[in-house]
Amino acid sequence: MGSSSKNIEQAQECCYLEWMSLQSQRIPELKQLLAQRRSHGDEDNDNKLRELTGKIIGDFKNYAARRADLAHRCSSNYYAPTWNSPLENALIWMGGCRPSSFFRLVYALCGSQTEIRVTQFLRNIDGYESS
């Protein structure tokens, strides 16, 4: 199991690095179009800017979808990726992306039945019969 989680971690890191590579390719182009817009202000440039913005948003959607798919196999890296710096992980937490937020969401979606099922599950683990 250790090697499969390591493989998933590597796949998640690779997914992140691919997305960052795409971002580093798009940023110079975005800066160039913004500079041209300031100097010229033509409609053709605005269309190119919209198209590039759409590509950047599409890149992020693809990244988020791939990351969500990988999170089904190993969710712990979803909350605090090992390839992030401590500052990046701190910013994720300060930004409100905490595991407790996800647990609250699941509880809200599942309703109060969750508490009853957790209690029954814990009783079964402890060897008590469920009533």
UniProtKB/TrEMBL annotation:
One annotated GO biological process: DNA-templated transcription
Pfam families per UniProt: DOG1
InterPro entries named in the record: Seed_Dev/Stress_Resp_Reg, TGA_domain
Ranges where the DOG1 domain occurs: 9-131
GO-annotated molecular function: sequence-specific DNA binding
Domain of life of the organism encoding this protein: Eukaryota
Protein name in UniProt: DOG1
Higher taxonomy: Eukaryota, Viridiplantae, Streptophyta, Embryophyta, Tracheophyta
